[in-house]
Each structure stands twice: as C-alpha cells, then as structure tokens.
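Troubleshooting: if your tokenizer reports a length mismatch, compare your output against this known-good record of 275 residues.
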Amino acid sequence: MKKSLLGFAAVGVLITTPVLAADMPVKAPPTAPVPVYSWTGCYVGANIGGIREHDNTPVTLVDPTGIATAAFTTRRIASGFSYDRNGVLGGGQLGCNWQVTNWVAGIETDFVGSSLAGGGTSNTAAPGFFPLTSAVTQKLDWIGTTRGRLGMAVGNGVLLYGTAGLAYTGVRHSYFQSDAAAGGPVSIFASDSTTLFGWTAGGGAEVGFGQWSVKGEALYYDLGNHPLAANCTVVSGAACATPNTVFTSHFENRGAIARIGLNYRFNTGPVAAKY
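Known-good structure output:
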C-alpha cells in the first residue's frame, strides 16, 4: 500500500513539472545595440555655390559752383543706379561641433573666392547738352565668414541648424563720368579696393555617414554701404566746368549665398549606442 502511494506521488510530480515550467516567464535574448551618429568633433571641407546681389547705388553731389546741379537734378547726370549681379563661389571651411543629447552647438569659419561683378551705365543726349556717359562698377573678389551654429539632430546622422556671425569681404568699386563738353572731353573717375566687415545669418541641413558629411546651406550677408568720392579732372581740351565738384557713389554690399559642402570629420561617426 505504501509503495503504491509513493508511485502515484512520483507520477504526479512528473506530470505537473512541465506545466509549471510553461507558466514561468522566459527572458528574451539580448539585442544588438543600434549605433547613434555623434556630431561631436572637428572637421575640414570644401564648398561650392552661387552668390547674388541686387544693388542700388545712389550718387550724391557736392557742387560749390552750382554749375553741375541743373544737369544732376534733370538726370542728364545719373543720380543713381540699380542692377543685379550673379556669380559663382568656391573655397573651404573648418569647424568643430559639440553634441549634448539631441542639441548640437558649433563654430565654423570659411573663406571662398567669388566671380561676383557688375554695374550700371547711363547714357544721355538731352537736347541742348553734349552727350554724357556715367557708370558704376563693383566686384566682390572673396568673402569669408566666422559663425556660430546651433542645431538639432533630428535623425540618425541628420542635423538641422541655424547659423549667424561675422562676414568680411574684399571688394573693388569705381565711378566714371565722361562729358563731351565744348572744347574737349572732361572726365570724372575714381576707384578703390578695400575690405568690408558686416554680419551674416542663415541655416542649413547636414547628413553624416561615417567620417564624412554633406551639407546644404543658405546665408544672407550685409556689409553695409561704401562711399566712393570722385572729383572732376581734366582729360584734354577745356578745363573742368565744375571745379571742386565731388560726386559720391554709395555702393550697397548685401546679398545671398546658396551652396553645398563636403566635410571630413575627425571623429568616428557612430560612437554611441542605444538598445
């Protein structure tokens, strides 16, 4: 009898053990970490793009004799010019980023050469006056910026950012006036080459893959107005009819840049991990 009871108990244990084991939670196997792109680190790269300005160049007159004032107010002598300029640019940049959670702060400086050039011309032949030509030209040889950047990583290897800072550029300006006056032509001419400073702001997007990243950005820059004074000078023939007269051109230097760039990053790209 006792042996029979022990046998039934053993069978019961064998039957219930698999049932209890089936009810116990099973721990899932560990998953592999997902790499997360890190923007922290420094970089160097190159860029290429386009540059555009719409310029207004008003001309003011100082005329102690009063002789040129009538021609100026009747627009026989142009009192201003308006023109568009377009060009290409290209150069390099370097910078550094620091990432905290999804926020990315950085600083970048760049220097590019530019083909931006152009100007305006006015030709008049008013009745009772000799023909007269006046013109302005300006050329932007290079432009550089030093900017702060602040953005957000919106995806793995995708950064959207805004940027603002200092802009500086090398420019050339000129003013020319030629009057077929009685007794011989009289011309007024002046030119200069200078470096201007101002501000720039814009934004862009950057995509990283390994140690490389590609960006596209747009910037607006404002370098203010630059005055250029031109005095009447004699070329040949008659003396200047307006001695001590000064024409001052006020050149605008503001425009927009759109460009793409390729950066080589000195960090390792995806260095963090999420589970």
